[in-house]
Amino acid sequence: MRKYLIMFSLASLFIMSANAEVYATVDGEEVTDKDMMFLKQAMPNIDFNTLPKDMRDKAIDQAIERKLLTKEANKDKNKIENTKEYKEALDDFKETMVLELWMRGQMDNLKVSESDIKKYYNENKDKMIIPEQANARHILVDSEKEAKDIIKELDKAGKNAESKFIELAKSKSKDPSASNGGDLPPFVKEGQMIPEFSNATFALKPNTYTKNPIKTQYGYHIIYLKSIQPKGVLKYEDIKPKLQEELKLVKFREVIANKAKELKKKSKIEIK
Predict the structure, then answer these.
(1) How confident is the model over 238-263, as a mean pLDDT?
(2) Is residue 35 over pLDDT 90?
(3) pTM of the entire structure?
(4) Residue 4 belongs to a domain
(5) Are 198 and 160 contained in the same domain?
(6) Is residue 134 part of a domain?
């Protein structure tokens, strides 16, 4: 039985470009996106550039080791290329590349019309609902006393409470959002924040703050609600590019499935 020693996915095959990012050099040779392909195969849904620094550094170190080991293996290149295993693996690789390039061509040739996209949008509106979202700021401190003292300062600020909140967040909050005045990305009531924090936020009226500290596993929070974005449906213009790609993928799968079915009918297949 042949051993499939080399496998590439469509996604990883085309990550290489002339402007590839350089992560390191090894004996003058650059370590680029091409050398990170092993990571993209292992974790296809992970964006390397969003990984924590320690994980990025570990991946780069692995790429450096692979490059060094490859150079070492190339010392026996002539010997390896004459082995049966190498020739079989090369044949497998060629077949895989031909199939993947053919499939990419099928994908590129697909056209999705404006009417198709609009129909897809109208038929799937139930999947395009934006839930109610909160736009809020928060200050995180270690003790209840610190939190209460901050609330007292906010009470004194009156109409300037939000400006004071931003000032206090920058100087007193231990959360990473401190540098941004405690500003948080919009979030829904369930699933994004811990319940105590989320419930306290959605209980507020816009342009008000919690009058009592909110205790969580991280410490004590003071929350300022800027606004509530009501539940709605994504606009066609905003979601159109994504829908176009989704619809193209749906059509691609149909084309490939139909082609496979057609080829099966024409072929003599024996399952043993």
Answers:
(1) 92
(2) no
(3) 0.51
(4) no
(5) yes
(6) yes
